[in-house]
């Protein structure tokens, strides 16, 4: 059973955060909060999963909030079912952001993987169990391609891409595209330095 609280002002929110209440998840409407308040909340409640809902989400603002420790950033007008899906995903350990924001985050996180993929040099213990096709798909995810784009590029169905990704997530113990992309980029970086 979950306890829920509602704050209508930034001051109400600060009071809740100061109390001895531990929050597992906070959904906050962007007009209610600023960057300093996000930093304050994360400092007071480091294990809290913080989701910001913005009326006008932007990649720049999303990246800034992610750097502060926010793990969900979405449009305030997201339909209720999609918001429930987001909450479930976040509670399960994933990040919830738009495809465009994820692509931008992935491309800014580390050097490109694809040239390394061609040589198979990125095989690490976490990636060793992947088939060549799974590694190829993981590489394309690390480049920010959507399932549909991967399907077109490889000449397979989107359903097949999803099946391969499910296997990749299980074999690498990653939860979602961002974690997989970061793993691939870490492996590429390690192979380039080794």
Entry summary:
GO terms for molecular function: DNA binding. With 194 residues, this protein is mostly helical. The chain has helices spanning 10-18, 35-44, 59-67, 80-91, 99-109, 114-119, 132-142, 147-154, 158-172, 177-193, and strands at residues 25-29, 49-54, 72-75.
Helical proportion?
55-70%
Number of helices: 10
Low-confidence stretches: 115-119
From the spread of the alpha carbons, the general shape counts as elongated
Number of domains: 2
Would you tell me which CATH topology of the largest domain applies? Rossmann fold
Biggest sheet, strands in spatial order? 1-2-3
Strand content: 5-15%
Describe the main β-sheet briefly: 3 strands, parallel
Distance between the amino and carboxyl termini: 49 Å
Organism: Desulfobulbus oligotrophicus
GO molecular function, one term: DNA binding
Protein name: Response regulator transcription factor
InterPro entries: CheY-like_superfamily, Sig_transdc_resp-reg_C-effctor, Tscrpt_reg_LuxR_C, WalR-like, WH-like_DNA-bd_sf
Describe this protein's structure.
- The protein is mainly alpha-helical.
- It has 2 domains: 88 residues, 3-Layer(aba) Sandwich (Rossmann fold); 86 residues, Orthogonal Bundle (Arc Repressor Mutant, subunit A).
- Strands 1-2-3 form a 3-stranded parallel β-sheet, sandwiched between helices.
- About 3% of the residues have low confidence.
- GO terms for molecular function: DNA binding.
- InterPro entries: CheY-like_superfamily, Sig_transdc_resp-reg_C-effctor, Tscrpt_reg_LuxR_C, WalR-like, WH-like_DNA-bd_sf.
- This is Response regulator transcription factor.
- Keywords: DNA-binding.
